[in-house]
Amino acid sequence: MAGGLEEARTWMHLAEEALGAARTLSREGYYRRATSNTYYAMFYAAKAAIILEGVDVSKHSAVISAFARNYSGLLCVQCHSWREWGAGDGLAKRGEDGHALLA
Q1: Sign of torsion, CA 10 72 39 35?
Q2: What CATH number has the domain bearing residue 79?
Q3: Residue 100 pairs with which residues in a beta bridge?
């Protein structure tokens, strides 16, 4: 598990980096890039979580499936694709132009 813990920390570092970049991009008005970075922040955090569960997958779709399988009881993912987050689901704060903003 020690190797798994270090690998999970690496993925969480990537998630934090992507989220920080998303915040900066959003403040500068680059909403599509901010949304993409937010998606990858969630993906990297999901990868870290399933690694801590002892699940080892490499395909992008397998990470999403494993996360949904292991954590679907803890949260409700309403989108068919995480890329749809903030695209009209009412969960994201919106700017005057209607684009999703990050806190």
Answers
A1: negative
A2: 1.20.120
A3: 94
